[in-house]
């Protein structure tokens, strides 16, 4: 049992905190490390780790990992305020503090701080992760809290918690693998910190291939798919070590969807991302070739435009042809999107957002449309290859004697 005594009304600001292990027959004073001019309001014991105590004073919060033998202040962003009550959430491991006049303060997912077992045995330590729920959020409802209340909602996803004995100059690399050992996400953390360090995984996969020139004219924003419920492993590379920790991702309990349906949905999304990657690669390829064609045309024009009139005309023709192909792969830039029909990339993203955003199995029409999207992508890939092997090859052959060096881009020559 623990007792906190507040005697400041008698002009005594000394901290008084006691512990008994024999039902009150004897008491031990546990104030080592507490300020001598502040008084104790509350003491709580972690329900998971008996040696861990959290103590509230008139001006902050302290923690002990050895049953009160020593105390360390953990205010972080908590103001210097009177702490009147504390609860340690038995399931979530949050430290919840009730203050006098400043409202409620919560340290989310404080398990690493509460359980320091094994810390100090090496230069880096990874903590056990708490299970995390992949909530299916509807922004018009779920974000109401941040518009109405002052406090920010906890960060969604899994927190990968590390203890570093010193500042790491090299980036911390984290790879997330599923039960089959397939890497679903890679994360690099470049913040130089020592002490307890937190890296958040938003339960999303790695994003698709990025467009080198952005997505203005098509859908804006990057798509990242949610992972299905299951067990995952985080491998952390830091300080010359590889540390592993398991992450259990639970399904939103409000959604009635079987594990088989989640798996099928994830497989369908992966297939859509495959065709999106192929499409983005084609768009990047077109942009790269057009940049080289522009540079080549400028060079020929600067050297002798009249002598290279035929070659310049060939370049203009191919450039126009590639522009038409790009406009079928992705909405043209500068168009009013709601008045311009969607192209291949928009069609793929439309189904991707529909499938990923719905807490349900994919429909028959969505599955059938996915297959036709692969057929359309194959047709456009064939057309692009014909352009490379036809007009572009002819330009290269015609200018074979001209040294062509372009900085930063691959040559259009086969």
Record keyword descriptors for this entry.
alpha+beta; 5-stranded mixed beta sheet; 4-stranded antiparallel beta sheet; 414 residues; 7 helices
At a glance:
The protein has helices spanning 111-114, 139-142, 144-148, 259-304, 309-329, 344-357, 364-398, and strands spanning 2-5, 16-19, 28-29, 40-45, 53-57, 60-64, 72-73, 83-88, 95-99, 104-107, 124-126, 132-134, 158-164, 172-177, 183-189, 195-201, 230-238, 241-251. The protein has 414 residues and is an alpha+beta fold.
Walkthrough of the structure:
The protein has 414 residues and is α+β, with helices and mostly antiparallel strands. Helix content is 31%, strand content 23%. It has helices at residues 111-114, 139-142, 144-148, 259-304, 309-329, 344-357, 364-398; strands spanning 2-5, 16-19, 28-29, 40-45, 53-57, 60-64, 72-73, 83-88, 95-99, 104-107, 124-126, 132-134, 158-164, 172-177, 183-189, 195-201, 230-238, 241-251. A 5-stranded mixed β-sheet has the order 12-18-17-14-15, with no helix packed on it. Strands 4-5-6-7 form a 4-stranded antiparallel β-sheet, with no helix packed on it. Strand 2 (16-19) and strand 3 (28-29) form a beta hairpin. Helix 4 (259-304) runs antiparallel to helix 5 (309-329) and helix 6 (344-357) packs antiparallel against helix 7.
């Amino acid at each position: 049992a623990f007792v906190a005594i507040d005697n400041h009304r008698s002009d005594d600001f000394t901290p008084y905190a006691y512990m008994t292990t024999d039902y009150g027959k004897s008491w031990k004073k546990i104030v080592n490390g507490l300020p001598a001019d502040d008084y104790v309001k509350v003491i709580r014991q972690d329900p998971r780790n008996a040696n861990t105590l959290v103590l509230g004073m008139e001006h902050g919060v302290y923690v002990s990992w050895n049953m009160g033998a020593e105390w360390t202040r953990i205010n972080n962003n908590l103001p210097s305020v009177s702490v009147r009550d504390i609860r340690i959430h038995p399931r979530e491991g949050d430290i919840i503090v009730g203050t006098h006049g400043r409202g409620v303060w919560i340290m989310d997912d404080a398990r690493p701080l509460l359980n320091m077992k094994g810390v100090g045995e090496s230069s880096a330590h990874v903590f056990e992760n708490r299970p995390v729920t992949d909530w299916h959020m509807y922004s018009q409802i779920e974000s109401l809290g941040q518009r109405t209340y002052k406090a920010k909602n906890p960060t969604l996803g899994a927190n990968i918690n590390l203890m570093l004995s010193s500042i790491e100059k090299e980036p911390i690399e984290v790879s997330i693998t599923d039960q089959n050992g397939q890497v679903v996400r890679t994360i690099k953390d470049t913040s130089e910190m020592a002490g307890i360090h937190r890296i958040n995984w938003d339960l999303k996969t790695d994003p698709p291939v990025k467009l080198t020139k952005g997505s203005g004219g098509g859908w804006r924003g990057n798509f990242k798919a949610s992972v299905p419920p299951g067990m995952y492993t985080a491998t952390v590379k830091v300080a010359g070590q590889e540390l592993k920790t398991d992450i259990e991702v639970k399904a939103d309990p409000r959604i009635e969807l079987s594990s088989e349906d989640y798996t099928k949905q994830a497989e369908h999304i992966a297939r859509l991302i495959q065709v999106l990657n192929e499409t983005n690669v084609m768009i990047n390829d077109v942009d790269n070739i057009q940049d080289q064609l522009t540079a080549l045309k400028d060079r020929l024009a600067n050297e002798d435009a009249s002598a290279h009139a035929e070659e310049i005309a060939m370049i203009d023709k191919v450039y126009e042809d590639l522009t038409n192909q790009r406009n079928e792969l992705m909405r043209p830039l500068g168009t009013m999107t709601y008045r311009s029909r969607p192209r291949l990339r928009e069609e793929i993203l439309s189904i991707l957002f529909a499938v990923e955003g719905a807490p349900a199995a994919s429909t028959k029409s969505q599955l059938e449309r996915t297959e036709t999207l692969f057929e359309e992508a194959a047709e456009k890939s064939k057309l692009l290859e014909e352009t490379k092997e036809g007009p572009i090859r002819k330009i290269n052959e015609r200018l074979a004697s001209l040294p062509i060096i372009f900085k930063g881009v691959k040559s259009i020559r086969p």
